[in-house]
């Protein structure tokens, strides 16, 4: 692992492989997400989703594994979510734009 903590809020994939194909892997993506309590969706047309995001920008939604939640409750949860106050970028030691901290391609 490159990080000691999983930073995923959720995962969306077209095809979820049940086969571990990398020699360094010790578990499947499904096992890892379950251990880290990360919700996910598979069998989704990710190309269509990407196209929609490009056309409309950020979309807010709600994912749940709780079957007792009604569609109305999930819509309400999505409407009440806000990006304000969310730390979506965390860089150890801080980051200053334009200070050449990234790799350069040649």
Offer a concise description of the structure.
The chain is built from three helices and two strands. The protein has 106 residues and is mainly α.
Give your account of this protein's structure:
Among the domains are: 1-44, no CATH class; 57-85, no CATH class. Helices cover 26% and strands 6% of the residues. Helix 1 links the parallel strand 1 (10-12) and strand 2 (39-41). The two termini are 28 Å apart. The chain contains three helices and two strands; from the N terminus they run βαβαα. Strands 1-2 form a two-stranded parallel sheet. The relative contact order is 0.12. With 106 residues, it is mainly α.
Topology record:
Elements: E1 10-12, H1 29-35, E2 39-41, H2 46-56, H3 71-80
Parallel strand pairs: 1-2
The fraction of residues in strands falls at 5-15%
Number of strand elements: 2
The dominant shape is globular
Residues in helices, as a percent range: 25-40%
Sheet with the most strands, sense and barrel status: 2 strands, parallel
User: What is the H/E string?
Assistant: EHEHH
Q: Provide the residue-averaged pLDDT.
A: 83
Question: What key phrases describe this protein's structure?
Answer:
106 residues; mainly alpha; 2 strands; 26% helix
